[in-house]
Design goal:
Transferase, Pyrimidine Nucleoside Phosphorylase, Chain A, domain 3, alpha+beta, binds calcium ion, single chain, Aldehyde Oxidoreductase, domain 3, binds uracil, Pyrimidine Nucleoside Phosphorylase, Chain A, domain 2
Length: 441
């Protein structure tokens, strides 16, 4: 087999065989296909697309390109969740302990964030002592003993994605649904869970800006699940404004804890409970999603979810007292109020701009090597649709460094639109895709 023939076939609109896809992934990971040929194939895929079968074959070839996790020592159906990424999106910290408290083991591997704010791993690292980097053996042991673990993806997992994602990043081939689906699903499959719930974001803060594109990506990922025999449900949710009120690592952990303690009832809680309900549903723990919702609501109201988070933090070396006392989390030296410049209604809180503002404060990375400042970020006081008066507080900035502060404030203000009229209501969740098809709400 020759790489050139594979490139030509895809360039001309052909369908690649399983063997051709295996050859490409295997030889590329082994260093026997140069980056320029891999780049050419990625670009050909970008323009010609892939069938569901090709996407599933690519996913499997990638998933088995390195080490995989065998969760069979843990009894029952293990469930994982994944969000395609957003701003102020701390659902994992809420939903993983809630689902575990309902008796379904949650085994989650997570990446670090590149972009506006940290990923789940960075957020968890703001908890004093918490160690997200567990060996696969300890990962399995903690899931078995506690019912939930959230760990960083190990180096040996899915090397094909590490190499291909780095190449896509510099060749303009990230934003393709089949490539995103195979990248995400290969990691989920390698991490071993039997059932997977995806939260596909649509809006300015997400990979998929339009709702239609988000549904198509969700469908691609569910198709892969069907093909490889794992139960997958994907909700499509709004990311035109940040999901939670906090954007920044320790600030998001604090907000997640407040949700688990029953102290908050905003969009973040609503989406978290829905994801939890679907996790119980795909794991076969309930007959209907409505039953699942009742179960996670009970786990939250009874405090069993908060208790489970404590157990997970403690099992991973962290100080579990943060769940009772969030002042143990790192916090920036200075808090600055950002105020409305006019009267009106908030008609836009652009997730992308607000994420960028938080990154400028030090909450996210510019390059992989950058350090994150866990205590900084933004706490919103308003959401889209709220009425504001001139001078009223829109947000608080948690600041340690002044150097990019003005730029952060300008970026934030550009993203917050205040109009004369209340904006049209936007749904928080647009629908769900399962093996049974698309359901639009
Ligand atoms: N997240 C991933 O893990 N992979 C992609 O390709 C895009 C987002
Ligand atoms: Ca509070």
């Amino acid at each position: 087999m020759r790489m050139l023939d594979i490139i030509l076939k895809k360039r001309n609109g052909g369908e690649l065989t399983s063997d051709e896809i295996d050859f490409f992934v295997h030889e590329y990971v082994a260093g026997r296909i140069p980056d320029y040929q891999a780049s050419a194939l990625l670009m050909a895929i970008y323009f010609q697309g892939m069938t569901s079968r090709e996407t599933a074959d690519l996913t499997l070839a990638m998933a088995y390109s390195g080490e995989t996790v065998d969760l069979s020592p843990v009894p029952g159906i293990k469930v994982d969740k994944h969000s395609t990424g957003g701003v102020g999106d701390t659902t994992t910290l809420i939903v993983a302990p809630l689902v575990a408290a309902c008796g379904v083991p949650v085994a989650k591997m997570s990446g670090r964030g590149l972009g506006h704010t940290g990923g789940t791993i960075d957020k968890l690292e703001s908890i004093p002592g918490f160690n997200p980097f567990q060996s696969i053996r300890d990962f399995i042991r903690i899931v078995k003993e506690v019912g939930v673990a959230v760990v960083g993806q190990t180096e040996s997992l899915v090397p094909a994605d590490k190499k291909l994602y780095a190449l896509r990043d510099v060749t303009g081939t990230v934003e393709h649904k089949s490539l995103i689906a195979s990248s995400v699903m290969s990691k989920k499959i390698a991490a071993g869970a039997d059932a997977i719930v995806l939260d596909v974001k649509a809006g300015s803060g997400a990979f998929m800006r339009s709702v239609e594109d988000a549904f198509e990506l969700a469908q691609e990922m569910v198709n892969v699940g069907v093909y490889v025999g794992r139960r997958v449900a994907a909700i499509v949710s709004d990311m035109s404004q940040p999901l939670g009120m906090a954007i920044g690592n320790a600030l998001e952990v604090r907000e997640a804890i407040e949700v688990l303690r029953g102290e908050r009832s905003e969009a973040l809680k609503e989406v978290s409970l829905l994801l939890g309900a679907y996790m119980l549903y795909v794991a076969g723990r309930c007959q209907t999603v409505e039953q699942g919702l009742e179960m996670v609501e009970e786990a939250l109201a009874s405090g069993r979810g908060a208790q489970k988070l404590k157990e997970m933090i403690s099992a991973q070396g962290g100080d579990e007292r943060v769940v009772d006392d969030t002042s143990l989390l790192p916090v920036a030296d200075e808090v600055i109020s950002i105020r409305a410049q006019r009267d009106g209604y908030i008609s836009g809180m652009d997730a992308y701009s607000i994420g960028q503002a938080a990154r400028l404060l030090g909450a996210g990375r510019n390059t992989k090597e950058d350090a994150i400042d866990h205590g900084v970020g933004i706490v919103l006081h308003k959401r889209v649709g709220d009425k504001v008066e001139k001078g009223e507080m829109l947000a608080e900035f948690y600041v340690n460094r002044e150097d990019a502060l003005q730029e952060a404030i300008d970026t934030f203000n550009k993203g917050v639109i205040i109009g004369e009229q209340p904006p049209q209501h936007k749904p928080l969740v647009y629908g769900v895709v399962t093996h049974e098809g698309i359901e639009r709400w």
